[in-house]
Amino acid sequence: MVCPPFAWGPTSKSSVYTIGNINVKTWYKFNVTERTNQFAYGAGRGYTREIRNGNEVIVAKWYGIGTARGASAASRRNIPWGNVAGYRAFHGKSLAPHFAIREWQ
């Protein structure tokens, strides 16, 4: 997947369906091409419970995973998933004035 410079790239959806329950977290990991000057930031979709108008609702939210550089290890993070059945999703952006190529799990 390609991350454009200083802008969010397209959202990539997992091909694996995730079924959660209360307090479940899901693991996200991403990286950029090794031994390059690529530098990217990634975010994974998770879910949180909120109170709206006195009712508890489940809301999709983007959680920052962190940054990855071509010469360093991948960035990883556990993200709240909760009592949701669905597909995980990821998007990222290059933090350098050129495109970054990344993969995620």
Write the layout of secondary structure elements.
Layout: E1 2-3, E2 12-19, E3 25-32, E4 39-52, E5 55-69, E6 75-80, E7 85-94, E8 100-104
Antiparallel strand pairs: 1-8, 2-7, 3-6, 3-8, 4-5, 4-7
Structural features, described:
With 105 residues, this protein is an all-beta fold. The chain is 0% helix and 65% strand. The chain has no helices and eight strands. It has a four-stranded antiparallel sheet, with no helix packed on it. The model has no long low-confidence stretch (mean pLDDT 88).
Report low-confidence residues grouped into runs of 5 or more: none
Average pLDDT confidence is: 88
In DSSP terms (H or I, runs of 4 or more residues), the helix count works out at 0
Largest beta-sheet details = 4 strands, antiparallel
